[in-house]
Design a protein that fits this description.
By secondary structure, the protein is mainly beta. It is built from 3 helices and 9 strands, in the order αββαβαββββββ. The longest helix has 12 residues. The structure holds zinc ion.
Length: 168
Amino acid sequence: MVSRFTRRFDPEKPRDHLDEQFDTHQPPMGTPIPSVPPWSALVLPGGRPHSLYHGRRDCEALTADVRLAAQCAQDVKVQIVKLDAVRGREDRVGCPLCRPTETDYSKIKDCSVETEMGPQEGMRLLWREDPAAGWYSLVTYKVKYRQRSRLVAESRSAGELRELPSPS
Ligand SMILES: [Zn+2]
């Protein structure tokens, strides 16, 4: 795979949002690879109506959820839990980015997400509420670029999402 350099690494180059989404730059040699024991999962509690469990520390959805929890003044401590303990629990859903084969899609609602490329069909993964009673959702949607597509995860306020039922 050929590394392409974008603004993140080359300040001389104009910013290219799409390029950044597909940045293939590898971390420098010696950078510890985030990993968790195979029997375990990572959970950031506090999501409504459920939280996600993840298999990778560098999962984009987990990173976005930690940012969202901080924004909502919630606990941002990621817990390592036994996988057996989270599978089948009502309040835990496998992350569609890093545990897609375990995701229970019946617990995840479709929604329309405003993106730089216009409205995209996406999935609303969970809600978090900030101290001022504002609701924010962690959403994921596909970005297509040069024949490739990948799932990205971001947080959005309730007002930015369409066709949504009220938070439960
Ligand atoms: Zn994940």
